[in-house]
Design brief:
Blueprint: H1 10-15, H2 27-53, H3 61-77, H4 79-84, H5 89-96, H6 101-111, H7 116-144, H8 154-163
Helix pairs in contact: 2-3, 2-6, 2-7, 7-8
Length: 164
């Protein structure tokens, strides 16, 4: 499928009587997809852990959930542009951003030949962001566990990160 492109090409493949059994499948697509899946899971779980560490009740979850979900929703909204023009400058920059790369880089790898430096740079930035998000979540949790019944403000969160 990657040889013909992904979106809207199934009809062309059927019309051209393409034999999928004889096509060479680039296994690097699966390797990068799995790698970005695992790193994305770690990234988003660290972000959700940080958001959950500052909450004390289930009623507060709804207010925090929308800002935490936006980094997941935005790349899904632009996937069609990534598929049609994967090498535009803004798409390359967006796919290198650690919160968006777990969703956008596998798509770019499937539809075009992404340079090795972009894959490597995206992975390095994602690993650094995972470490940073987990560190911040740990600092918030360390102080937030002692604060019962009170929802923190933004300045309090910054103070928790500094003193945690």
């Amino acid at each position: 499928l990657s040889q013909f492109g992904l979106m809207g090409r199934v009809g062309d493949m059927i019309g051209a009587t393409a034999d999928l059994a004889t096509m060479a499948f680039p296994w690097s697509i699966l390797v990068f997809a799995f790698l970005f899946f695992v790193l994305g899971y770690l990234m988003y779980s660290a972000v959700f852990a940080g958001a959950g560490a500052m909450l004390t009740s289930e009623q507060d979850i709804q207010q925090v959930l929308v800002p935490v979900m936006m980094p997941i929703v935005f790349p899904i909204l632009i996937v069609t542009q990534v598929i049609t023009t994967p090498n535009r400058t803004w798409i390359v920059a967006t796919s290198m951003f650690p919160l968006f790369s777990p969703i956008l880089m596998p798509v770019r790898n499937a539809v075009t030949n992404v340079p090795v430096w972009q894959n490597a740079g995206s992975i390095v930035l994602l690993v650094i962001a995972i470490w940073l998000a987990a560190w911040i979540a740990g600092r918030i949790y360390r102080v937030g566990i002692l604060m019962k019944g009170k929802r923190p403000s933004i300045p309090e969160l910054v103070r928790w990160m500094r003193h945690g």
